[in-house]
UniProtKB/TrEMBL annotation:
Occurrences of domain Calcineurin-like phosphoesterase N-terminal (ranges): 155-233
Residue ranges of every copy of the Calcineurin-like phosphoesterase C-terminal domain listed in the record: 467-650
Pfam families: Metallophos, MetallophosC, MetallophosN
Domain Calcineurin-like phosphoesterase: 246-455
Organism: Sphingobacterium gobiense
This protein's name: Metallophosphoesterase
GO MF annotation terms: hydrolase activity
InterPro entries: Calcineurin-like_PHP, Metallo-depent_PP-like, Metallophos_C, Metallophos_N, STPP_CPPED1
Length: 665
C-alpha cells in the first residue's frame, strides 16, 4: 500500500506540474487579461496539495529590485515558501519567503541575484505544495509607466535611475526616441524578437555578456503582450577611441585554428589593446562577419556559442556583424537561417555611436542555401544584397544623425569588386549598393568596412566615400599556419593575416592594417624576382606526377624563371593617396603599379596542398596593391620608402640578392 500511495503522489505532482506549464497570465506591465487555473467541479481528494485559489501569475512578471512584489491568490499563510525553478536548466533555483499576507495576495521580495528568465513558481507549506504557474521575470526601473494605445513595447533608458532623453530605440522596423524622462514607446510586430538602442556617444551599456555589449533585449513573441524593456547606460569618455576591425575568423575547430587564434590573434590584439588603454583611450572591436564556418557547425560541433567563448578572451567590448558563413545551414531561408545568430548575438542590423562617430552594421547576405533541411547542409549559396527592410530602417536611423557626423558602415560582403591597377572605380559586388550610397550622399565622410574576400583593398568613390576591404584574421582559412605546413600566416593577396586599427579622435579619423605578430610599421614586403622561381622539384617533391603537373597552373607567372633584375613590392595598406619611392645608388627608379599574385602565398598554400596530393581550394588573388621596379644589376641595394596618406613613412633597405623563403619579411 505504501508503494501504491507513493506512486499516486508522484503521478499527481507530475500531472499538476505539466498542467501548470500551460498557464500564462499578465498583471503588471502587460495585458490586463489573466487566466486562472482550471477548476474541476468534482476534484478528487488531494491530500498533498495546498488549497490556494484565485491564483493568477502573469506571462511576464515585471519586478523592481529591492521592492516588494505581489503574487495573487487566496489561502496563503505567513510560513509559506515560494520556490522558483528555471526552465532553461542553466540557472539555479531560488527560494523566497512571504513578507506579508493579504486577503487576496501575498507580498514577496525577490532575491537580488535572481536572473531574468523563465521560471515555474511553486508554493510550499511543510509537505504540501501547489504549482502557481510559469512566468518570465523581467527587471524594470519603473512599474508605473502607463500603457499607450497601439504601443506594445515600452521602457526607460537611464543612467543609474536617471532617465536619458533622445536615445534612439528600434526593433529593426519602428524607430523612436526617448522622451525627457528617458521613456520610449514602440509599436513592434516582434518579428525580429528584440528591441535595441543606438548607444549614444560617450556612453556604454552597463549589461554585458562577457565582452559583448547587451544593447538589445529579447521580446515576448506574442504581439498582444506589452513588453517593458529598460536599458542602463554609464558615462564614459570615448571621443578619442580605438576601433579594431576584425574580418573573417572562420572558427570551426579545424586546421589548428583555435590554437592559432589564441596564440596568434588574441595575443597580438590584446597587446595592442593594452598599449592604447595605457594612453587613456577606450578600445572597442567590431567584427566584419564570418565569425564561424557553417559548413562545420554540425560535423565539428562548433557554432556561434563556441565563437562567443573564444572572442570573450579579447580584452575589449566586441560588436558583431553577420557573414554568409554565420547562417544555419539546415535552413533554405534567409530569415530562418539567421535565427541562430539572433538567439546568440542579437540584431543582424543595428547602429551605435562611439564618441562623435555613428556606426551602422548591416547584413548584406541573402542566404539561399538550396537543399538545406534538418540534418542536411544545403549548397550554402547566397546573393550579395541588402534587404529592402534594412534600407528602410537605415533611412529612419539616419534621420537622427547630423550630416557632419562621420559615418562608418559595416557589411560582410564587399560593396565593390577589387580595383585593378588602372585605377578605375570597380563595379559593385553588392547588387543594390547604389541605394546605400545614395542614402549616405548627404554625409561629409563615410567609411565602409567590409570583409569576405580575405584580401586588402580600398575603393574611393568621390572625396567623401571610401570602402575598406580588410584581409582576414584567419588569412587563408588557417591553412598556412597549420601544423606541418609553411609556418607563416598569409592571406591570398600576400597580406599577413591581420586586422584594421582605427584611431578615432573626435571627427579626425586615421587607420592602418595591423599584421598579426609584426610591429605596426610592417606595411610591405619586397621580392627579388631573380630568386623567385616556383618549380615542382623544389616545392612539391612529395607529390605524385599528377599533382606535380599542376604546379605551373598554380604558380602563374612565377613558374617561369625571371632574370630581369626586377623587384616586386606588395603594399597591403595601399590606397591612391600613398606614395612609393625607390632609389638605387641615389637615383630614383620608375615605380609601376601592376596586377599580380603574391609568390609567398603561392608557395605557402597552393604548393603545400599539391605536395600532399590535394588540389588547392583558395587560389592566390590577383591584386593591384603590387608595384614593380627594375634595377640596373642583380646585386645593388635599393632604398624603398612608402608614405601613407597620413604622412607615416615605412622603409626598407633592400640588400640584393634577397632570399625567397617561407619566413621572409
Amino acid at each position: 500500500m505504501k508503494k501504491e500511495h507513493l506512486r499516486y503522489k508522484t503521478y499527481r505532482l507530475f500531472h499538476l506540474f505539466i498542467l501548470s506549464l500551460f498557464i500564462s497570465f499578465s498583471i503588471i506591465s502587460c495585458e490586463k487579461t489573466t487566466t486562472k487555473p482550471d477548476e474541476d467541479k468534482n476534484p478528487p481528494e488531494q491530500v498533498d496539495r495546498l488549497q490556494l485559489s484565485e491564483v493568477s501569475i502573469p506571462a511576464v512578471f515585471d519586478i523592481k529590485k529591492d521592492t516588494e512584489a505581489r503574487i495573487s491568490g487566496k489561502g496563503y499563510q505567513a510560513d509559506d515558501v515560494i520556490t522558483l525553478t528555471p526552465l532553461d536548466g542553466l540557472t539555479k533555483s531560488y527560494t523566497i519567503t512571504v513578507t506579508k499576507v493579504e486577503s487576496n495576495h501575498i507580498l514577496v521580495v525577490f532575491p537580488e541575484d535572481l536572473l531574468e528568465g523563465r521560471y515555474t513558481l511553486v508554493a510550499q507549506r511543510g509537505d504540501l505544495s501547489q504549482t502557481l504557474g510559469t512566468t518570465t521575470f523581467n527587471y524594470v526601473l519603473r512599474t508605473d509607466i502607463p500603457d499607450r494605445e497601439g504601443k506594445n513595447v515600452k521602457g526607460v533608458v537611464h543612467i543609474n535611475g536617471e532617465g536619458l532623453a533622445n536615445v534612439v530605440v528600434s526593433d529593426g522596423y519602428d524607430v523612436t526616441k526617448t522622451n525627457e524622462e528617458g521613456v520610449y514607446y514602440l509599436h513592434s510586430n516582434k518579428r525580429t524578437g528584440y528591441v535595441f538602442i543606438s548607444i549614444p556617444g560617450n556612453f556604454e551599456v552597463v549589461s554585458t555578456n562577457n565582452n559583448l555589449p547587451q544593447f538589445y533585449r529579447y521580446l515576448n513573441a506574442n504581439p498582444n503582450i506589452i513588453d517593458t524593456k529598460d536599458f542602463e547606460l554609464k558615462p564614459v569618455a570615448n571621443d578619442n577611441h580605438i576601433l579594431l576591425s576584425l574580418g573573417d575568423m572562420h572558427l570551426a575547430a579545424r586546421n589548428d585554428d583555435l590554437a592559432q587564434f589564441q596564440h596568434g590573434f588574441l595575443s597580438d590584439a590584446n597587446q595592442q589593446i593594452t598599449h592604447y588603454q595605457a594612453q587613456g583611450k577606450k578600445v572597442y572591436a567590431l567584427t566584419l562577419g564570418d565569425l564561424t564556418w557553417e559548413t562545420y557547425w554540425y560535423s565539428n560541433n562548433f557554432t556561434l556559442p563556441e565563437y562567443v567563448q573564444q572572442i570573450s578572451k579579447l580584452n575589449a567590448p566586441v560588436f558583431n556583424a553577420m557573414g554568409n558563413h554565420d547562417n544555419d545551414p539546415y535552413f533554405a531561408s534567409d530569415w530562418l537561417a539567421e535565427n541562430a545568430y539572433r538567439r546568440t548575438l542579437g540584431p543582424t542590423y543595428y547602429s551605435f555611436n562611439l564618441g562623435k562617430v555613428h556606426y551602422v552594421i548591416l547584413d548584406n547576405t541573402e542566404y539561399i542555401n538550396t537543399g538545406g533541411s534538418t540534418g542536411n547542409v544545403g549548397q550554402r549559396n547566397y546573393n550579395a544584397k541588402i534587404a529592402d527592410q534594412q534600407l528602410t530602417w537605415l533611412e529612419k536611423d539616419l534621420e537622427a544623425v547630423n550630416s557632419s557626423t562621420p559615418i562608418v558602415i559595416v557589411t560582410h560582403i564587399q560593396l565593390h569588386n577589387a580595383p585593378s591597377a588602372n585605377g578605375n572605380t570597380p563595379n559593385y559586388r553588392t547588387s543594390n549598393a547604389q541605394q546605400l550610397v545614395d542614402l549616405l550622399s548627404r554625409f561629409n565622410e563615410v567609411h565602409v568596412m567590409t570583409g569576405h574576400t580575405h584580401v586588402n583593398y580600398r575603393v574611393l568613390r568621390g572625396d567623401k566615400f571610401m570602402e575598406h576591404n580588410t584581409a582576414a584574421i584567419c588569412a587563408t582559412w588557417w591553412w598556412t599556419g597549420r601544423n606541418g605546413y609553411s609556418g607563416n600566416h598569409i592571406s591570398p593577396d600576400g597580406s599577413p593575416g591581420g586586422y584594421g586599427v582605427w584611431e578615432m579622435n573626435s571627427t579626425n579619423i586615421k587607420w592602418h592594417y595591423k599584421s598579426i605578430g609584426y610591429e605596426n610599421k610592417y606595411q610591405f614586403r619586397t621580392y627579388d624576382l631573380n630568386n623567385v622561381h616556383i618549380t615542382a622539384d623544389k616545392y612539391t617533391s612529395a607529390a605524385n606526377s599528377q599533382h606535380k603537373s599542376l604546379v605551373p597552373q598554380y604558380a602563374f607567372d612565377f613558374a617561369t624563371e625571371n632574370n630581369n633584375d626586377e623587384v616586386l613590392i606588395n603594399i597591403w595598406g595601399y590606397d591612391p593617396k600613398w606614395n612609393i619611392s625607390v632609389t638605387e645608388n641615389g637615383s630614383s627608379l620608375t615605380v609601376q603599379r601592376i596586377d599580380s599574385r603574391d609568390p609567398l602565398h603561392i608557395i605557402s598554400y597552393a604548393m603545400q596542398r599539391l605536395n600532399v596530393n590535394a588540389v588547392p581550394t583558395f587560389n592566390s588573388a590577383n591584386t593591384s596593391h603590387m608595384f614593380k621596379v627594375k634595377a640596373s644589376t642583380p646585386n645593388t641595394t635599393l632604398d624603398i620608402q612608402v608614405t601613407d596618406r597620413f604622412g607615416n613613412v615605412y622603409s626598407e633597405t633592400m640588400e640584393r640578392p634577397k632570399a625567397f623563403n617561407y619566413s621572409m619579411r
